[in-house]
Amino acid sequence: EFKPLHLSMYAAVYNDVAFSDISNVKWAVEAIESLAAREVISGLGDGTFRPNNKVTRAEFIKMLMIALELESEEAECTFSDVEVGEWYYEPVAAAQKLGIVNGKGDGTFGVNDEILRQDMAVMIYRAAQSLGIDLGDAIDVEPFTDEENISGYAKEAVGAMQKSGIIKGTGDGGFAPKNNATRAEAAVIIYRLINK
Predict the structure, then answer these.
(1) Helices 183-194 and 29-37: crossing angle, nearest 10°?
(2) Over the stretch 112-129, which tens digit does the pLDDT of each residue have?
């Protein structure tokens, strides 16, 4: 079963993917395998996924845009560090066009910067808004214990993502907003959004 985001031609394809190193992240196995089967994410060519490796901003936005079928060949990017022809150009350009990313104060996107957990939440939130996805707020949640560490621009997004159940924190009541996200965390948050 799948939920199409728009009317289009679809073909059923089975992409059998198995990774040798995801058994230690049981909480992420379903998300990783599902996104790999849809060719949203891939391994490193040696049968591994490296779930605890960090994710760059370019890698995350590419995964997100592919998962939501939001790529656009016509979009143009104005970030100074996003070069035409690079593997990340179209996803970043489409995300900029839709307002999912705004870049940094110096005019860059931060292509190779490892993505912060709070920035991942912001991008997911804006993507949901641009698609009109009803996130709901059915979950009664306690504020994260480190809520004061969440940057002002990310507070609304983190709160909405928490109430919708898309983000759940670090298990100790905190969110660790300025920690860098792992490949497993990125897979899980994208998987939860596309299943909304």
Answers:
(1) 70
(2) 999 999 999 999 999 999
Q: Between 81 and 8, where is the model more confident?
A: 81
Percent of the chain at pLDDT > 90 equals: 72
DSSP string for the chain: ----SSS------------TT-TT-GGGHHHHHHHHHTTSS---SSS---TTSB-BHHHHHHHHHHHTT---SS-----TT--TTSTTHHHHHHHHHTTS----TTS---TTSBPBHHHHHHHHHHHHHHHT------S--PPPTTGGGS-GGGHHHHHHHHHHTS---SSSS---TTSBPBHHHHHHHHHHHHT-
Distance CA 39, CA 43 (A): 10
Pick from 171, 173, 194: nearest CA to 68: 194
pTM of model > 0.85: yes
Phi-psi map region of 48: left, alpha, beta (phi>0 left; psi -120 to 50 alpha): beta
